Amino acid sequence: MYYKCENGTVREGICPDGLVFDDRQSPDVLKCELPFEIDCSNRAALQPPQSTEHCPRLYGLYAHESDCTRFWQCADGHAFAFYCPEGLAYNEYSAHCDWPDEVETCDSESLLSFRCPQPTDQELQDFGDPRYPYPGDCRKHYVCILTPDGSRKPRLLACDPGLVFNPRTSSCDDPENVQGCQGYYNNLDARRLRELFGRR
């Protein structure tokens, strides 16, 4: 709810269901935003929800019911499905795609079909967070992040264009230095790709 003054008269306004008034704007601008963008801690609760299928409120971004890589964008009660980029999951608290280990409702091991092996002391000393090749794609690899509970959870990363993952050095490298990945870019010039994407 907000108040608008016009010619000495106060009028009460209300944002559409799922949106909140943005008081950071100039008084001349009346704007409603998604709640994650505005600090509403000192405000009254939102109006009662007007839910529709997949939309807890008429407007907003909402996690998919069963797939943590998907989310719904609701506009006037109509749900539009979106997917996060590969290796990411939708975080309903920040309303963006995030690492799956950062999303409470997502199991990163199931999502990525990879369980981090127990690293050796030497791996931890040499590389910090251990990295492992992704089967079938020379650019991709998993990094196993240490979580607050002491376990390690996988994240899917990809080397910059023109490079591939080198399991010997646990880093991105030129394709000619990685056995089995020399032809990864086929007819594309890996060096030219790096130049195009700002890498030398």
SSE run: EEEEEEEEEHHEEEEEH
- Radius of gyration computed on alpha carbons: 24 Å
DSSP summary, beta strand count: 14
Strand content: 25-35%
Instruction: Please work out how many helical segments DSSP would assign.
Output: 3
Taking the sheet with the most strands, its summary is: 3 strands, antiparallel
List the helices and strands and how they pair.
Layout: E1 2-6, E2 9-13, E3 20-21, E4 32-33, E5 60-63, E6 70-75, E7 78-83, E8 89-91, E9 96-98, H1 108-112, H2 121-127, E10 131-133, E11 140-146, E12 152-158, E13 164-166, E14 171-173, H3 190-196
Antiparallel strand pairs: 1-2, 3-4, 5-6, 6-7, 8-9, 10-11, 11-12, 13-14
What does this protein look like?
The protein has 200 residues and is mainly β. It folds into two domains: 2-106, no CATH class; 109-197, Antimicrobial Protein, Tachycitin, Chain A. The chain has three helices and 14 strands. The protein has helices at residues 108-112, 121-127, 190-196, and strands at 2-6, 9-13, 20-21, 32-33, 60-63, 70-75, 78-83, 89-91, 96-98, 131-133, 140-146, 152-158, 164-166, 171-173. A three-stranded antiparallel beta sheet has the order 5-6-7, with no helix packed on it. Strands 10-11-12 form a three-stranded antiparallel beta sheet. The protein is elongated and about 75 Å long. The model has no long low-confidence stretch (mean pLDDT 86). Residues 1-42, 52-108, 113-183 form the Chitin-binding type-2 domain. This is Protein obstructor-E. InterPro entries: Chitin-bd_dom, Chitin-bd_dom_sf, Chitin_bind-dev_reg. One of its GO terms (cellular component) is extracellular region. Keywords: Chitin-binding, Disulfide bond, Glycoprotein, Repeat, Signal.
